[in-house]
């Protein structure tokens, strides 16, 4: 399963439900920064739902206990403000004053590889602010991997469907 988007609070129940049904959960989008902060990773000025940190820790522990891998971004495309149109890639922690707005190139390659080898993939939520060219690469990489995946693929949610349309991959 691939989950992204802005709010971790909207998807935690989905993640919990998936733990008995999937081998891996690939997390991107702003929701990843709440998970990363819950693990003690510095996320700079990235969007974090502070009231969901303990719940994220609980989900991570439940996943580990069940043998389910939850992959979080290892690198990020960042900007100093949400209006910025240029990206700086940061590995690991995000510096103070910067916010993560897309997964980085290492994470793109990792996630695309996982999708390429999967028998079934369900995707809901973009990996970043895909509407802006500087922060579209992560979502594009997942969309391309979904289109090439030989297994069964399901894309759900308005933003994910919009991304497939934007990247001209709906028919694939």
Describe, in plain words, how this protein is organized in 3D.
With 172 residues, the protein is an alpha/beta fold. Helix 4 runs parallel beside helix 5. The model has no long low-confidence stretch (mean pLDDT 94).
- Based on Cα principal axes, name the global outline: globular
Cα(first) to Cα(last) distance is 18 Å
State the helical fraction: 25-40%
Number of helices, where a helix is a run of at least 4 consecutive DSSP H or I residues = 6
Mean pLDDT: 94
Residues in β-strands, percent: 15-25%
Write the element-wise H/E pattern from the N-terminal end onward: EHEHHEEEEHEHEH
Largest sheet: 5 strands, parallel
Secondary structure class reads alpha/beta
What does the secondary structure layout of this molecule look like, with pairings?
Elements: E1 2-3, H1 12-18, E2 24-27, H2 31-38, H3 53-66, E3 69-71, E4 75-79, E5 88-91, E6 99-103, H4 105-116, E7 120-124, H5 137-148, E8 152-156, H6 158-166
Parallel strand pairs: 1-2, 1-7, 2-3, 7-8
Antiparallel strand pairs: 4-5, 4-6
Helix pairs in contact: 2-3, 4-5
Descriptive key words:
single chain, 172 residues, alpha/beta, three-stranded antiparallel β-sheet, 19% strand
């Amino acid at each position: 399963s691939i989950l992204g988007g802005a709010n971790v609070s909207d998807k935690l129940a989905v993640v919990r439900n998936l733990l008995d049904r999937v081998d891996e959960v690939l997390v991107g989008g702003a929701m990843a920064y709440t998970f990363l902060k819950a693990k003690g990773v510095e996320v700079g000025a990235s969007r974090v739902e502070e009231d969901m940190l303990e719940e994220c820790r609980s989900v991570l522990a439940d996943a580990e206990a069940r043998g389910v891998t939850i992959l979080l971004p290892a690198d990020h495309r960042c900007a100093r403000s949400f209006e910025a149109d240029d990206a700086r890639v940061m590995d690991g922690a995000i510096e103070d004053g910067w916010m993560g707005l897309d997964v980085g190139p290492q994470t793109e390659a990792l996630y695309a590889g996982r999708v390429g080898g999967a028998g079934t993939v369900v995707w809901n939520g973009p990996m970043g602010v895909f509407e802006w060219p500087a922060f579209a690469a992560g979502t594009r990489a997942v969309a391309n991997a979904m289109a090439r995946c030989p297994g069964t693929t399901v894309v759900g949610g308005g933003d994910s469907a919009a991304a497939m349309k934007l990247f001209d991959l709906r028919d694939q």
